[in-house]
Structure formats: structure tokens, C-alpha cells
Amino acid sequence: MKIALDATYSLGRNLSGVGVYSREILQGLARAHPEARYSFCYRPHRFVRSFSDPLPSHCRRRLLWNGWAGPADLFHSLNQRIDSKHYKRTVSTFHDLFVLTGDYSSPEFRTRFADQARAAAERSDLIVTVSNFTAGQVETFLKVDRARIRVIQHGVRPPASVTTSPREPIILFVGALQRRKNIARLVEAFEQVAPQWKLVLAGSSGFGSEEILERIKRSPRRQDIQRLGYVPEARLEDLYRRASVFAFPSLDEGFGMPVLDAMSRGVPVLTSNSSALPEVTGDAALLVDPTDVASIADGLSKLTGSESLRQEMSRNGLRRSQSFSWEKAVSETWSVYEELVA
């Protein structure tokens, strides 16, 4: 089988979200099915940069130009974008549609995203979504028949070991500082937590970050709030080891990778009772209403005030995270290819 994949977003060391997914699927397929031949395809703005990444012997580097990168049995878009229908069999992965559901981006980006999403949905023979929640959004907003959708959840790379040393009174958030992540409400809720606790925000700035930074500046607990910006992987692992609570009250998530990362590292999780987050966490997290500051504050107070509850949520999270693996995601992706090619 000859498979072409859009590898554009897999480049670089400090990946998140779509980049992590792209890298895991590309490398996982190459390892699991060496009998296949792969074209790793890069859009023009990243093609030259791609030469810094070595490829396995059965993989070729291709320029992806207007949706075409040379002959293949099928093409897989790893980030819900297909510029034109050149290939007989086409798969696209949809991660989320939050741009269409709320005021989480600029009007220009929303228009461009909507056009690309609709085109990808129309040009795909099968669509992979990373959660049942995203599958429902694709079905509702893009009018895709559910029979064309396959749900394949993300995996996680757990650490070699989980710390057993005492944790610090840190509430950790990992993700971009953007309106969708609901950080302004998290800050307001944190103000009601006992004074010995700190709130650490790890992530680069995004849409709406100005209002978040202004809310932090006005906070009576601003001295207890640490904003780190983008954090390299080694330092992030250190934060997971030290934190006693992971807080992620996001308003809209197609999956929620940071929650799974935290659970796999034994950090008790507080997250939203909406979007894909309950689907990912199951009974292994404390769920709150992300639109209600009182609900978030009550959840934080419960976790910060009870060592036994934190231990219970830590055990539940570790157990839950073991049901997610990138090997499983790769295997299910290969099954989609076989379904199409057969």
C-alpha cells in the first residue's frame, strides 16, 4: 500500500496538540507497517525545514502543493484540510470545531477555518475524529453522515515512573492562554482557595490573552499566580511532578491532551463537565461547570482541602490513562486505510 500523509505539523521539538498527533501517527505507522510505502508530505512554507528530520528508508519526503504530492493509494490529511480532491481515496482527521461554536478566534480566521473544514468534509471518503464529541460536531455543523465517521482517540506517552515524593501546594494549568481555555474564571475561582496555594499557568499567549493578563493583574492573589509562558518538555515534566492539582476548566475541547498527560503522571484533575472532557476522563476527574465560577471554586476547594481525595483521584487517573495508547490509535488508523483500500 502506498500512503501519502500531510506531515506539515509534525516538525519541531516542542510540539503540542495537532503536532503531537501528527508525529505519533506518522512514526507509529512507519514502525508498525514497514511493508507499506509512505510519502510524508509538507506544505511549501515548511518543506525546506522538513529536511532537518531524518525519515525511515521506506518513507519519502514530498512537497504538498494544492493537495497533490505524487501518486498514492490514499491520502490522509492529519489536520482537517484538503485543498483539492486529487486522490481516489481520502481520509481527514478532525480534531475540533471550536472556532465555529463560540467567540474564540478572529472573524477572519473563523471564515477561513470554516471554509477549509467544509471542503475537507466534502472531499473525504472517511473522516477520523478524536472523540465522540467531535464526531457529533462534524455531523451537526458540517452535515456529515455518521456512517462516514470513525472515532479514534488520542494516546499518551506516560513517564517511566510516577513520583511518590510529596507534592507542592501548586494548582497547575497547561495550555495556551486564550479565551476558550477559561483562565479568567479559573483565576477568579483560585482567589477563594486557601492562601498557601499557588496557581501556575504554563502556555504561550493566544486569542484573548490580553483580557486574561488584565484579570491576573487585578487579582488580589496576583502574587500567588505564576505565568511561565511556553514551557519546554523537561520543565513541564518537573511541573507535573511537583503539582498537587491539575485544573483545566476549558469551555470547548475536541479531546483535551493536557488532561490525559496529567492523569498519566498521577496529578489529580479538575476539569469541565462539557465538550469532550468527560469522555476522556470518565470517573477519574472532578468535573465542574466551566461557566460557573462558584462551581470551579468549590471543586478546587475540595481537592486542595483533602489529601485523601487527591490520592483517590490520582489512582483513578493513572488507571484511566492506561486505556489510551498511541499504538492503539495507529492500529485503528491502519484499519481505516484497509477499509478504504479494500
Detailed description of the structure:
The chain is 38% helix and 17% strand. It has 342 residues and is an alpha/beta fold. The strands form 2 sheets. A 7-stranded parallel β-sheet has the order 3-2-1-4-5-6-7, with helices on both faces. Strands 10-9-8-11-12-13 form a 6-stranded parallel β-sheet, sandwiched between helices. Helix 1 links the parallel strand 1 (2-6) and strand 2. Helix 1 (18-32) crosses helix 12 (326-341), helix 5 (183-190) packs parallel to helix 6 (209-218) and helix 8 packs across helix 11 (307-321). The longest helix is centred in the middle third of the chain and has 17 residues, at 107-123. The chain is globular and about 60 Å long.
Outline the secondary-structure elements:
Elements: E1 2-6, H1 18-32, E2 37-42, H2 44-47, E3 59-63, E4 74-77, E5 90-94, H3 107-123, E6 126-129, H4 132-141, E7 149-151, E8 170-174, H5 183-190, E9 198-202, H6 209-218, E10 225-229, H7 233-242, E11 245-248, H8 257-264, E12 269-272, H9 277-281, E13 286-288, H10 293-304, H11 307-321, H12 326-341
Parallel strand pairs: 1-2, 1-4, 2-3, 4-5, 5-6, 6-7, 8-9, 8-11, 9-10, 11-12, 12-13
